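If your schedule permits, I should be very grateful for your opinion on a structural question. I have a record of one protein: its chain in single-letter code and its fold written as discrete structure tokens. Would you kindly read the sequence against the tokens and tell me how you understand this chain to fold? Thank you for your consideration; the sequence and its tokens are set out here.


***
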Amino acid sequence: MNKLLAKIKKIKVTPKLVLKVLYWLFLFALYHVCEYLNQYCNNARGGMWRIGNSGIPFATLPGVFTSLLMVILIIWVVHFRKFGFYAAITILGIRFIRLGIHLYHHNLMILPGIFMSLVTLMAVGIIYQANEALIKTEKKHHKEQEEFTKSIIGAFTNCIDGKDAYTNGHSYRVALYTTMLANKMGVTDQATLDKYYNIGLLHDIGKISIPDAILTKPGKLTAAEFDTIRSHAQEGYKILKDVKIQEDIAAGAHYHHERYDGTGYPDGLSGKAIPQVARIIAVADAFDAMSSTRSYRKKLPLDYIAREIETYAGTQFDPEVANAFLSLYEEGAFDNLRNPDPD
């Protein structure tokens, strides 16, 4: 019972769900209308349904309505799968009991109804089994596709992080921080969190195109070298823009260096015009850069990093994302990074 209540609580009322419920109720009402007309025609076999100058004997109509009843049950199974199957089986069970009572009283007129009910029972069972087999196949295919996607993204990520020993693991940490921040901001859907994680993993894929001599240079970069470094955002977009395995997979690579005040690159977007995942990655990326040792400096103290992110909220960073980071910081989510590297 507790499991059932937990499942009920997870149900989200959406327009699609409302339409599905209304469709179910329509079929349920239609079934009972056909059942009533079926019984009415059975009780008035000597009558005639007049249509203009012609008519249809009531004796021929029970077969029509019985056929409609059976079609409705099959539609339930096709559209509502397991729930529809159990509903159809329950109704057929009740119908067999009622037909059995008629047969017990030697009413042989219900034999066609019994035959059609048996055929419907077989059809319902076959359709349900076919549906379940199809669902199982779809789930297996989806799982295989997910595993393939993960392996490809993992391979790309290893290539990115392998470019620079100082930033090894950077992509994985940024992906982790991105999901932590998104969850703190209220993103609870696991599919969205998984998508954000993958986008975070590939945010620096454009660095594959940057020469190692520039990427790992310990000293100050020249203006030309800095422009080359900046090009990784656009290069990352070019690499990922045609990848269809996951929606918005190029968003992090393309926009993670945009600034909330519009002074970032490559497109100078500002505010909410920057995709949410890129605004989150911007904070995650800056945080990991400051909390990691690089070729040009030691990692910075966590308290200092928190002050920096707070200071630049509203200019470099989305204030909502910055606040989410500061909340996690206050909760101690990053305490394992608190001490800087020893000299």
Remarks:
- The longest strand covers residues 48-51.
